[in-house]
């Protein structure tokens, strides 16, 4: 049984992960801005395990620090950090306000780094710990300039972090989901698996860290194709008319 901090636990992948990890008896710290959603979830999970709700805006460095401090005050430690909170982003990114661009970078890239920064000293002292970062297939196959920038960055950061922390006994894993049915993709009409499939991948990682897991697994083939045949990827993914080709991905 581990003490697990999950950011973005108020919906989608984070919520599904909280439900599954509670089933397994892990002690949970749930963070997001919508405290009402977190409270309702905590109430539902309370019969299964200990749950602490910490209303957190991860775009605010002080609140990320406070989240980890509150987790430690309640449970004495943090064994696993799941950096899941994230914002999607609609195409085209250049129509976003400067503040909106910075906010997306903060939530998707700076926040996971700040949370890692807060837990590393604890984990280092114990000589063990695990940081799980939720990136995206968009961190391999770029289609939207802002969102892809954040997920490529998070994967690059995670890769370095894995090498930096291995000597300290701290594991780093990445989960890269493809399209998953959550609030983030509610505007898309294509068929998608539910967030439980990602929750299951994260639960397996909690038991056994891995460098990176792509879910669903068939996206690995697409990633490989785009890597080996970038010209084909360009042909398929290029948008001729930014306005008509507007993606409705994300509520960021
Ligand atoms: N759905 C997909 O197709 C897909 C694919 C690849 C990767 N992902 C990644 O999976 C992760 C979870 O997304 P999801 O699909 O589950 O979408 P979601 O249902 O929209 O969940 C996003 C979560 O992030 C939280 N969040 C956003 N901004 C925050 C902030 N400033 N402070 C604290 N929490 C914040 C939200 O909580 P509050 O609004 O309550 O703060 C919410 O709990 C994200 O990192 C996303 O990029 C999703």
Short description:
This protein has 252 residues and is of the alpha/beta class.
What does this structure look like?
With 252 residues, this protein is an alpha/beta fold. It contains 8 helices and 7 strands. The chain has helices spanning 12-23, 35-45, 61-75, 98-126, 145-165, 196-207, 219-228, 230-237, and strands at 3-7, 27-32, 51-55, 80-83, 129-134, 170-177, 212-215. It has a 7-stranded parallel β-sheet, sandwiched between helices. Mean pLDDT is 95; it is low at 245-252. It binds NADP nicotinamide-adenine-dinucleotide phosphate. Residues 7-8, 10-14, 32-34, 56-59, 84-87, 107, 134, 136, 177, 179-180, 182-185, 195 line the site of NADP nicotinamide-adenine-dinucleotide phosphate. NADP nicotinamide-adenine-dinucleotide phosphate binds at residues 7-8, 10-14, 32-34, 56-59, 84-87, 107, 134, 136, 177, 179-180, 182-185, 195.
Please write out the topology:
Layout: E1 3-7, H1 12-23, E2 27-32, H2 35-45, E3 51-55, H3 61-75, E4 80-83, H4 98-126, E5 129-134, H5 145-165, E6 170-177, H6 196-207, E7 212-215, H7 219-228, H8 230-237
Parallel strand pairs: 1-2, 1-4, 2-3, 4-5, 5-6, 6-7
NADP nicotinamide-adenine-dinucleotide phosphate (NAP) is lined by residues 7-8, 10-14, 32-34, 56-59, 84-87, 107, 134, 136, 177, 179-180, 182-185, 195.
Number of helices: 8
Based on Cα principal axes, name the global outline: globular
Instruction: Output the helix-strand order.
Output: EHEHEHEHEHEHEHH
| β-sheet strand percentage | 15-25%
Q: Low-confidence spans: pLDDT under 50, at least 5 residues?
A: 245-252
Let me know the largest β-sheet: 7 strands, parallel
What is the oligomer described by this structure? single chain
The assigned structural class equals alpha/beta
Helix content: 40-55%
Compute the average pLDDT.
Answer: 95
Query: What is the first-to-last residue Cα distance?
Result: 35 Å
Strand order of the largest sheet: 3-2-1-4-5-6-7
**What integer value in Å does the Rg equal?**
18 Å
Compute the number of strand runs.
7
**Bound ions, cofactors and other small molecules, one mention each:** NADP nicotinamide-adenine-dinucleotide phosphate
